[in-house]
Automatic annotation (TrEMBL):
This is Glycosyl hydrolase domain protein. One of its GO terms (molecular function) is glycosyltransferase activity. SUPFAM superfamilies: UDP-Glycosyltransferase/glycogen phosphorylase. Keywords: Hydrolase. It holds the Pfam family Glyco_trans_1_4.
Length: 324
Protein backbone atom coordinates (compact mmCIF):
# COMPACT_ATOMS: atom_id res chain seq x y z
CA UNK A 1 0.00 0.00 0.00
CA UNK A 2 1.20 3.52 -0.77
CA UNK A 3 0.79 6.01 2.06
CA UNK A 4 1.87 9.47 3.12
CA UNK A 5 2.84 10.09 6.74
CA UNK A 6 2.92 13.69 7.98
CA UNK A 7 5.58 13.45 10.67
CA UNK A 8 9.09 14.38 11.68
CA UNK A 9 11.39 11.43 11.05
CA UNK A 10 14.83 11.09 12.67
CA UNK A 11 17.18 8.13 12.76
CA UNK A 12 17.78 8.69 16.49
CA UNK A 13 14.74 10.55 17.85
CA UNK A 14 14.72 11.95 21.37
CA UNK A 15 11.24 13.48 21.55
CA UNK A 16 8.28 11.24 22.37
CA UNK A 17 6.25 12.12 19.27
CA UNK A 18 9.25 11.51 17.02
CA UNK A 19 9.92 8.16 18.67
CA UNK A 20 6.33 7.13 17.92
CA UNK A 21 6.62 8.38 14.33
CA UNK A 22 9.83 6.46 13.65
CA UNK A 23 8.41 3.25 15.12
CA UNK A 24 5.30 3.51 12.96
CA UNK A 25 7.10 4.47 9.74
CA UNK A 26 9.76 1.79 10.15
CA UNK A 27 7.06 -0.76 10.97
CA UNK A 28 5.10 0.12 7.82
CA UNK A 29 8.16 -0.07 5.62
CA UNK A 30 9.20 -3.39 7.16
CA UNK A 31 5.82 -4.77 6.08
CA UNK A 32 6.48 -3.73 2.50
CA UNK A 33 4.38 -0.56 2.37
CA UNK A 34 5.59 2.45 0.36
CA UNK A 35 5.80 5.36 2.81
CA UNK A 36 6.45 9.00 1.89
CA UNK A 37 7.22 11.31 4.82
CA UNK A 38 6.25 15.00 4.91
CA UNK A 39 7.32 17.23 7.85
CA UNK A 40 4.32 18.86 9.55
CA UNK A 41 5.79 22.34 9.11
CA UNK A 42 5.47 22.10 5.31
CA UNK A 43 2.19 20.18 5.11
CA UNK A 44 0.19 23.23 4.01
CA UNK A 45 2.68 24.18 1.27
CA UNK A 46 2.67 20.58 0.02
CA UNK A 47 -1.12 20.46 -0.28
CA UNK A 48 -1.20 20.98 -4.08
CA UNK A 49 1.09 18.00 -4.55
CA UNK A 50 -0.94 15.89 -2.11
CA UNK A 51 -4.14 16.76 -3.98
CA UNK A 52 -2.71 16.14 -7.44
CA UNK A 53 -1.39 12.70 -6.54
CA UNK A 54 -3.01 11.59 -3.29
CA UNK A 55 -1.89 8.39 -1.61
CA UNK A 56 -4.63 5.91 -0.71
CA UNK A 57 -3.87 6.66 2.95
CA UNK A 58 -2.59 9.82 4.69
CA UNK A 59 -1.48 9.52 8.33
CA UNK A 60 -0.79 12.37 10.78
CA UNK A 61 1.25 11.55 13.89
CA UNK A 62 1.72 15.01 15.47
CA UNK A 63 -1.00 16.49 17.63
CA UNK A 64 -3.55 16.76 16.16
CA UNK A 65 -3.70 20.54 16.37
CA UNK A 66 -5.53 23.17 14.28
CA UNK A 67 -3.15 22.79 11.32
CA UNK A 68 -3.73 19.04 11.17
CA UNK A 69 -7.49 19.62 11.25
CA UNK A 70 -7.28 22.20 8.45
CA UNK A 71 -5.11 20.08 6.17
CA UNK A 72 -7.29 17.05 6.84
CA UNK A 73 -10.49 18.96 6.04
CA UNK A 74 -9.07 20.10 2.70
CA UNK A 75 -7.77 16.63 1.78
CA UNK A 76 -11.08 15.06 2.81
CA UNK A 77 -13.05 17.51 0.63
CA UNK A 78 -10.89 17.41 -2.48
CA UNK A 79 -9.40 13.92 -2.64
CA UNK A 80 -10.21 10.26 -1.91
CA UNK A 81 -7.31 9.63 0.46
CA UNK A 82 -8.27 7.90 3.72
CA UNK A 83 -7.13 10.13 6.58
CA UNK A 84 -5.88 8.70 9.87
CA UNK A 85 -4.71 10.54 12.98
CA UNK A 86 -2.39 8.95 15.54
CA UNK A 87 -3.30 11.26 18.42
CA UNK A 88 -0.05 11.46 20.36
CA UNK A 89 -0.70 14.92 21.85
CA UNK A 90 -4.06 16.50 21.00
CA UNK A 91 -3.79 20.28 21.16
CA UNK A 92 -7.18 21.57 20.09
CA UNK A 93 -7.88 24.27 22.66
CA UNK A 94 -7.04 27.01 20.14
CA UNK A 95 -8.97 25.43 17.28
CA UNK A 96 -11.25 28.08 15.70
CA UNK A 97 -14.97 27.41 15.74
CA UNK A 98 -15.18 27.20 11.97
CA UNK A 99 -12.93 24.11 12.08
CA UNK A 100 -15.17 22.35 14.60
CA UNK A 101 -18.03 20.02 13.83
CA UNK A 102 -16.98 19.05 10.31
CA UNK A 103 -15.49 16.00 8.65
CA UNK A 104 -11.72 15.67 8.75
CA UNK A 105 -10.15 12.37 9.79
CA UNK A 106 -11.82 9.13 8.77
CA UNK A 107 -10.33 7.34 11.77
CA UNK A 108 -8.37 8.17 14.92
CA UNK A 109 -6.05 6.02 17.02
CA UNK A 110 -5.94 7.49 20.53
CA UNK A 111 -4.83 6.69 24.07
CA UNK A 112 -8.32 7.39 25.41
CA UNK A 113 -11.64 8.72 24.08
CA UNK A 114 -11.68 12.53 24.00
CA UNK A 115 -14.52 14.90 23.30
CA UNK A 116 -12.20 17.44 21.67
CA UNK A 117 -11.15 14.88 19.06
CA UNK A 118 -14.76 14.02 18.27
CA UNK A 119 -15.52 17.73 18.07
CA UNK A 120 -13.20 18.29 15.09
CA UNK A 121 -13.74 14.93 13.37
CA UNK A 122 -17.49 14.43 13.53
CA UNK A 123 -17.73 11.07 11.74
CA UNK A 124 -14.33 9.59 12.60
CA UNK A 125 -14.09 6.03 13.88
CA UNK A 126 -12.00 5.93 17.04
CA UNK A 127 -9.81 3.08 18.20
CA UNK A 128 -8.45 3.22 21.73
CA UNK A 129 -4.89 1.88 21.80
CA UNK A 130 -2.16 3.10 24.16
CA UNK A 131 0.56 4.73 22.06
CA UNK A 132 3.59 3.21 23.76
CA UNK A 133 7.22 2.62 22.82
CA UNK A 134 9.26 -0.09 21.16
CA UNK A 135 10.99 -2.19 23.86
CA UNK A 136 14.14 -2.60 21.75
CA UNK A 137 14.72 1.14 22.09
CA UNK A 138 15.99 0.52 25.63
CA UNK A 139 19.29 -1.22 24.86
CA UNK A 140 22.09 -0.97 27.41
CA UNK A 141 25.11 1.00 26.31
CA UNK A 142 27.25 -0.58 29.00
CA UNK A 143 28.38 2.80 30.37
CA UNK A 144 26.82 4.22 33.51
CA UNK A 145 26.49 8.02 33.56
CA UNK A 146 29.30 9.93 35.25
CA UNK A 147 27.05 10.95 38.14
CA UNK A 148 26.29 7.30 38.94
CA UNK A 149 29.84 6.95 40.29
CA UNK A 150 29.03 9.56 42.95
CA UNK A 151 26.31 7.44 44.52
CA UNK A 152 26.26 7.22 48.29
CA UNK A 153 25.60 3.91 50.02
CA UNK A 154 22.05 3.60 51.26
CA UNK A 155 20.89 6.83 49.60
CA UNK A 156 18.35 6.43 46.77
CA UNK A 157 19.02 8.24 43.51
CA UNK A 158 16.02 9.70 41.68
CA UNK A 159 16.12 10.89 38.08
CA UNK A 160 14.03 12.97 35.71
CA UNK A 161 14.66 13.09 31.95
CA UNK A 162 13.33 16.00 29.94
CA UNK A 163 13.35 19.74 29.26
CA UNK A 164 14.52 22.26 31.82
CA UNK A 165 11.35 24.33 31.66
CA UNK A 166 9.23 25.66 34.50
CA UNK A 167 6.09 24.26 32.86
CA UNK A 168 7.44 20.77 33.63
CA UNK A 169 6.85 21.24 37.36
CA UNK A 170 10.52 20.80 38.24
CA UNK A 171 10.15 23.12 41.22
CA UNK A 172 8.75 20.01 42.95
CA UNK A 173 12.29 18.64 42.95
CA UNK A 174 13.37 21.60 45.08
CA UNK A 175 10.55 20.79 47.51
CA UNK A 176 11.72 17.18 47.72
CA UNK A 177 15.27 18.22 48.53
CA UNK A 178 13.98 20.68 51.15
CA UNK A 179 12.07 17.85 52.87
CA UNK A 180 14.62 15.04 52.51
CA UNK A 181 17.96 16.81 52.20
CA UNK A 182 20.81 14.29 52.08
CA UNK A 183 18.38 11.35 52.31
CA UNK A 184 17.95 11.47 48.51
CA UNK A 185 20.02 12.43 45.50
CA UNK A 186 18.22 13.84 42.44
CA UNK A 187 19.53 14.17 38.88
CA UNK A 188 17.83 15.95 35.99
CA UNK A 189 19.07 14.68 32.64
CA UNK A 190 18.17 17.66 30.47
CA UNK A 191 17.82 17.66 26.71
CA UNK A 192 21.03 18.96 25.09
CA UNK A 193 19.02 20.17 22.07
CA UNK A 194 16.59 22.60 23.73
CA UNK A 195 17.34 25.81 25.57
CA UNK A 196 17.01 25.60 29.34
CA UNK A 197 15.43 28.12 31.69
CA UNK A 198 18.48 29.71 33.40
CA UNK A 199 16.50 30.85 36.46
CA UNK A 200 15.06 27.38 36.99
CA UNK A 201 18.49 25.82 36.55
CA UNK A 202 19.91 28.13 39.23
CA UNK A 203 17.08 27.21 41.62
CA UNK A 204 17.60 23.49 41.10
CA UNK A 205 21.35 23.73 41.61
CA UNK A 206 20.89 25.84 44.74
CA UNK A 207 18.52 23.18 46.11
CA UNK A 208 21.13 20.46 45.58
CA UNK A 209 19.69 18.91 42.40
CA UNK A 210 22.34 17.73 39.96
CA UNK A 211 21.88 18.65 36.29
CA UNK A 212 23.35 16.68 33.40
CA UNK A 213 23.07 18.27 29.94
CA UNK A 214 25.41 15.95 28.08
CA UNK A 215 24.37 13.71 25.20
CA UNK A 216 23.47 10.18 26.36
CA UNK A 217 24.14 7.57 23.64
CA UNK A 218 22.05 4.88 25.38
CA UNK A 219 19.26 6.35 27.51
CA UNK A 220 18.68 2.98 29.18
CA UNK A 221 21.95 3.50 31.05
CA UNK A 222 20.38 6.51 32.79
CA UNK A 223 17.34 4.60 34.06
CA UNK A 224 19.33 1.56 35.13
CA UNK A 225 21.71 3.76 37.15
CA UNK A 226 18.82 5.17 39.24
CA UNK A 227 16.42 3.92 41.92
CA UNK A 228 13.35 6.06 41.15
CA UNK A 229 11.91 8.06 38.25
CA UNK A 230 10.10 11.34 38.97
CA UNK A 231 7.59 12.82 36.51
CA UNK A 232 6.43 16.20 37.78
CA UNK A 233 4.43 18.16 35.13
CA UNK A 234 1.09 19.54 36.39
CA UNK A 235 -1.78 17.54 34.88
CA UNK A 236 -3.35 20.68 33.40
CA UNK A 237 -0.35 21.49 31.20
CA UNK A 238 0.05 20.32 27.60
CA UNK A 239 3.85 20.23 27.58
CA UNK A 240 4.25 16.53 26.83
CA UNK A 241 2.55 13.76 24.90
CA UNK A 242 -0.32 11.94 26.62
CA UNK A 243 1.92 8.96 27.43
CA UNK A 244 5.25 10.65 28.23
CA UNK A 245 8.34 8.93 26.88
CA UNK A 246 10.36 9.11 30.10
CA UNK A 247 7.74 7.28 32.17
CA UNK A 248 7.47 4.46 29.65
CA UNK A 249 11.24 4.15 29.29
CA UNK A 250 11.63 3.97 33.06
CA UNK A 251 9.07 1.17 33.28
CA UNK A 252 10.76 -0.71 30.46
CA UNK A 253 13.97 -0.62 32.49
CA UNK A 254 12.24 -1.82 35.68
CA UNK A 255 12.56 1.57 37.42
CA UNK A 256 9.83 2.57 39.92
CA UNK A 257 7.90 5.73 39.00
CA UNK A 258 6.18 8.48 40.94
CA UNK A 259 4.15 10.69 38.63
CA UNK A 260 1.49 13.34 38.64
CA UNK A 261 -1.82 12.14 37.10
CA UNK A 262 -0.76 13.53 33.73
CA UNK A 263 -2.46 12.86 30.41
CA UNK A 264 -3.52 9.25 29.86
CA UNK A 265 -1.09 7.83 32.44
CA UNK A 266 -3.66 7.12 35.21
CA UNK A 267 -5.94 5.17 32.85
CA UNK A 268 -3.23 3.30 30.99
CA UNK A 269 -1.04 2.46 34.02
CA UNK A 270 -3.79 1.82 36.58
CA UNK A 271 -2.71 -1.01 38.85
CA UNK A 272 0.79 -1.25 37.38
CA UNK A 273 3.22 -2.50 40.03
CA UNK A 274 5.88 0.07 40.88
CA UNK A 275 3.89 3.10 39.69
CA UNK A 276 2.44 5.70 42.09
CA UNK A 277 0.42 8.80 41.29
CA UNK A 278 0.33 11.95 43.40
CA UNK A 279 -1.23 15.35 42.70
CA UNK A 280 1.25 18.18 42.31
CA UNK A 281 0.60 19.60 45.78
CA UNK A 282 1.31 16.20 47.39
CA UNK A 283 4.12 15.10 45.10
CA UNK A 284 7.04 15.88 47.42
CA UNK A 285 5.35 14.12 50.35
CA UNK A 286 4.75 11.04 48.18
CA UNK A 287 8.49 10.86 47.53
CA UNK A 288 9.17 11.16 51.27
CA UNK A 289 6.88 8.18 51.90
CA UNK A 290 8.66 6.22 49.15
CA UNK A 291 12.05 6.89 50.74
CA UNK A 292 10.72 5.97 54.21
CA UNK A 293 9.48 2.57 52.91
CA UNK A 294 12.92 1.75 51.54
CA UNK A 295 13.33 -1.86 50.41
CA UNK A 296 9.57 -2.46 50.73
CA UNK A 297 8.93 -0.48 47.54
CA UNK A 298 7.99 -2.77 44.60
CA UNK A 299 9.70 -2.57 41.22
CA UNK A 300 7.98 -2.78 37.83
CA UNK A 301 8.37 -6.02 35.91
CA UNK A 302 9.08 -4.10 32.69
CA UNK A 303 6.99 -2.45 30.03
CA UNK A 304 3.38 -3.73 30.13
CA UNK A 305 2.51 -5.67 26.98
CA UNK A 306 -0.26 -3.27 25.97
CA UNK A 307 2.33 -0.48 25.72
CA UNK A 308 4.47 -2.24 23.11
CA UNK A 309 4.47 0.31 20.26
CA UNK A 310 4.54 -2.38 17.59
CA UNK A 311 0.85 -2.82 18.31
CA UNK A 312 0.37 0.66 16.86
CA UNK A 313 1.44 -0.50 13.40
CA UNK A 314 -1.15 -3.27 13.40
CA UNK A 315 -3.91 -0.96 14.63
CA UNK A 316 -3.00 1.71 12.07
CA UNK A 317 -3.15 -0.84 9.26
CA UNK A 318 -6.59 -1.89 10.48
CA UNK A 319 -7.78 1.71 10.46
CA UNK A 320 -6.15 2.40 7.10
CA UNK A 321 -7.95 -0.51 5.49
CA UNK A 322 -11.24 0.18 7.23
CA UNK A 323 -11.28 -3.29 8.87
CA UNK A 324 -11.23 -2.08 12.48
Amino acid sequence: MRMTVVAEYYDEPAEGINVVSKTLIDGMRARGHEVAVIPPAVALSRLPRLLLKPAPVTIFTHGPGPRTVLVSRILRSLSRTRILWVATRPDLGACPRWLCGGRSAHAILCNRPRADLAGVASDARMLTQPIGIAPERLVDGGQAPVWAARRRDGVPLAVHVGHLRRSRGLDRLCEIKALLGDRIDIVVVASPYFESDPCLMAELLAAGVHIDRGFVPAIADVYRAADLYLFTPPPETEGAIELPLGVLEALACGLPVISTPFGALPEVLAGTVGVEFAPSEDFAQAVVHWVDRGAANPRPAGLPNHLNAHRITERVLELASGTE
